[in-house]
Amino acid sequence: RLRQRLAGSGTLGRGLLGLLSRDRLDEDTWEAIEDLLIGADIGVEPTQQLVEKLRTRMRVEGGDTPDAREVLREELVALVDPGLDRSLHISGTEGVPGVVLVVGVNGTGKTTTVGKLARILVAENRTALLGAADTFRAAATEQLATWGERVGVEVVRGPEGGDPASVAFEAVKQGIDQGVDTVVVDTAGRLQNKQGLMDELGKVKRVIEKQTPVTEVLLVLDATTGQNGLIQAKVFSEVVDVTGIALTKLDGSAKGGIVVAVQRQLGVPVKLVGLGEGPDDLAPFDVGAFVDALLS
Ligand code: GDP
């Protein structure tokens, strides 16, 4: 499924394979390979490391010519998966709900991701509750309420313009009272100054943790925004302890390499990928499927 959805991925894969399969891998060829990788948003340093590895492995020494596709696949998997734990921490301990805090810049797909995540939880026969703590964007609460109806999960909401922390507190309180498995809290993503963001998200997290630990902090990042989105995401990772990335709009991006860049620069694994606007368009990140899509 990932294979079909990754826009333009074939271009990168075909381009790389075409170059690597040349009879003679001269300097111009290696430069062209480097350009392709950098153009896919993998980042300069990882690109250079990858090219170094490919150079070594593609060297023909006496025996058979190495299989370009096999070598490329192995090296891409190693690059995308430096042994990170991609499990989602959605469970609490001893009958207490797990709490997933979803953060990120407005427009990245935060609310949509919360809705789709609720769908996944329901599909896994878990009980869930959503908290609409993005009280600054008028439409956000409505949007989440619509998602709640769509996937059959209750949404705890507060007054428009109300205190996000009090909505978050209330959602978790009700989640504990009802004994649900997971509470997912949507938050506001105004890109105000760092201090303001820190105060706001810090308070949301603190009031939740007066009741029970936050088990997962998911940072939502829009794959189509490239390096610029990454800089904004970094600000969030500096104000809360992010434990996983939800990379959205991968269906609309030809730059899947952002996965590599984001994991390296933020030091956290991509755990979920958004592959469309529908309720079933969120999936656990599958490294093998992703690399196959790049090479398809
Ligand atoms: P928020 O402001 O971060 O809460 O963003 P929204 O959840 O409102 O999403 C912004 C827009 O991105 C909406 O039109 C969503 O349908 C769209 N969107 C979210 N995730 C994806 C995705 O994975 N793929 C695509 N194509 N669109 C997405």
TrEMBL record:
- Membrane topology type, per the record? Peripheral membrane protein
Q: What does the record give as EC number?
A: 3.6.5.4
The UniProt keyword set, sorted, is: Cell membrane, Cytoplasm, GTP-binding, Hydrolase, Membrane, Nucleotide-binding, Receptor, Transmembrane, Transmembrane helix
Classify the source by domain of life.
Bacteria
State where the protein is found. Answer: Cell membrane; Cytoplasm
Domain called SRP54-type proteins GTP-binding: residue spans: 269-282
Query: Where do the annotations place GTP binding?
Result: 104-111, 186-190, 248-251
Describe the protein's quaternary organization and the partners it interacts with.
Part of the signal recognition particle protein translocation system, which is composed of SRP and FtsY.
By sequence similarity, the record places it as follows:
Belongs to the GTP-binding SRP family. FtsY subfamily.
Q: What is this protein called?
A: Signal recognition particle receptor FtsY
Q: Which residues of the full protein are shown?
A: 83 to 378 of 378
